[in-house]
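Predict structure. Chain length: 463.
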Amino acid sequence: MKSTKLQRILECASMNALRSKKALFVAAAAIIAIPSAALAGDGHQDNTWAAKQAIKGGQARNVILLIGDGMGDSEITIARNYQVGANGRLSMDKLPLTGAYTTYAVQKADPSKPDYVTDSAASGSGWATGHKTYNGAISVLPNEKPVPTILELAKKAGYKTGDVTTAELQDATPAVLGSHVINRDCKGPDAMATCAVNDKVNGGAGSIAEQLVQTKPDLLLGGGKQYFDQTVKAGQYKGLTVAQQAQANGYQVVTDAAGLTAASANKPILGAFAKNNMDLEWVGPKPTRTGTEPAKCAVNTARTASQPHLVDMADKALTVLDKQTRNSRKGFFLQIEGASIDKQDHAANPCGQIGETVAFDAAIKRVLQYQKQNPDTLVVVTADHGHTSQIVEDVTLGYTATLITADDANMTISYATADIAGSQQHTGTEVRIAAGGPQAANVLGVTNQTDLFFTMKRALGLK
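Prediction complete.
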């Protein structure tokens, strides 16, 4: 009897304890839920889950690198303010993971010391090869020895490859992927005075133009036709132009937008759409010492319709490379450069600079559409170095122009590193790097420009 009574007492106590625990749990849940509900109701999304989802390891099938030449944070902000307003977002702003990387070069005479302000040759060689080098070097070490590039390694491993730019294809950023010369000015067979060791007449690999077609990316699209029209001076193709050498090696050579559209995906394509750099998208007021009246930018009506836009070249590259790799286990490596952001920053031309940034952003949008359908693609958007332009309060001691933005507000832009008749200078600042897809988390934090080579190499599983 006593035993039964004791048993009932124990059972009752146990049930009360369970009720207490349940009540405590419900209360705790309510306490946790209250701030969550408050956060959910304030209109600001919690991105924790999205950030976790964006971090993917493993291997990518494709890598697409987009370079805005000279596109520092200031240049991005100027273009954003003008095109979509201060609270708007460009396509390049929508990549899920963002960091910054340092851009310095090294001194040729003493590579243990940094050269704090890089040019496009040294910076491009950094992400193309994983090695720091001196300003002016195209994928050679400070001792002038060539080193393999990400495009060359990808091609050797069986990936398709592409190199797209709005500059001359022989300009530094596109050149670093498929050529090795000791001076960036050695663009064609007639321009080898400062690169005797690389000259074909001396047993070298040749000019940048010659080496690009010898490396044979599946697509070469941009300007620089004049260098492809120069004559090879030695070797197997002596007497032919570089373009004819390309044709002898299976390239379709096209020179206008219609030719690009018609080009077959079954053969390599060399598209040279301008004698030098491709024409600008926009024009507008040039800065003065006393500023300008607020104005809008305008479409460059002098731009010939025979030239494809960067988004057209990007679309063709994606279409061709996707078709070429559709039945292959391995995909492609593609670099796309918005080149004249830098060139118009040098020229202190705000509308030229903004128009090229907006055109570059259109190419990014097209790439992100492709990535959405092909999530095993690593997309990286970055710059090679910073530049001069700054948003300022009012007229400065430099040269300023004022534009009317998408906010219907005035934005004053200053250029102050050179006289207006000279060339504005690069800056030594770190620049934005943003990415999405496999291995994208490696852009987080503050990294070095050379780290990008290893991120892309790891993504493609290259040796």
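Summary: DSSP finds 14 helices and 17 strands in the chain.
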